[in-house]
Amino acid sequence: MLRSYFQKMKGGGQSPPRVGLGEIAWSWLGAFAGVGLLAYVNYQFIQGTGFILILGSLGASAFLIYGAIKTPVAQPRNLLGGHILSALIGVTAYKLFPGHLWIASALAVAFSVAVMHFTRTAHPPGGATALIAVIGDEKIHALGYFYALMPVAAGALILLLVALLVNNISKTRKYPEYWI
């Protein structure tokens, strides 16, 4: 019994094929344009206002919506729903357990995973968005529930707009696969 348990960890499938250079180039262009626009707006217009527009979890989203555009987790519903719901959950966990960050962190991520599954908005970077709401600095904590609007929703929307523009330039790419 224990042996079969550990046998599962060996894997057995094959690695996926290498991505072609054209696909890599389009993914690079999308990630550069999307994150570049977020960073430009953040550092040229928002810095010093007490708000932010760029988060590490949005960088992970950039990989999905520019580099894995056909996957369910990269679709607009998942991008926006996963981030926004997870942000709300993360802020709530922090507010309920501000003196116990270990439990707030675990609850934020676990509930985010469950809610994203339940609502069909699975977007793996959403887990990081929830965690950032808990472990972030005072600037993040001061935002409270506004964190779900800015930087989370605003940042995800900017990345989505760039994804719609860039991912549809190539004749071989189409984004999104679906909206709802």
What secondary-structure arrangement, pairings included, does this model have?
Blueprint: H1 2-7, H2 21-46, H3 56-67, H4 76-96, H5 101-119, H6 125-135, H7 138-143, H8 149-166
Helix pairs in contact: 2-3, 2-8, 3-6, 3-8, 4-5, 4-6, 4-8, 5-6
Care to describe what's here?
This protein has 180 residues and is an all-alpha fold. Helices cover 66% and strands 0% of the residues. It has one domain. Helix 4 packs antiparallel against helix 5, helix 4 (76-96) runs parallel beside helix 6 (125-135) and helix 5 (101-119) runs antiparallel to helix 6.
Labels describing this entry:
180 residues, 8 helices
Explain briefly what this protein structure is.
This protein is mainly α.
- Beta-strand percentage range: under 5%
Span between termini? 43 Å
Shape: flat
Percent of residues in helices: 55-70%
The mean pLDDT is 96
Low-confidence stretches: none
H/E element string?
Answer: HHHHHHHH
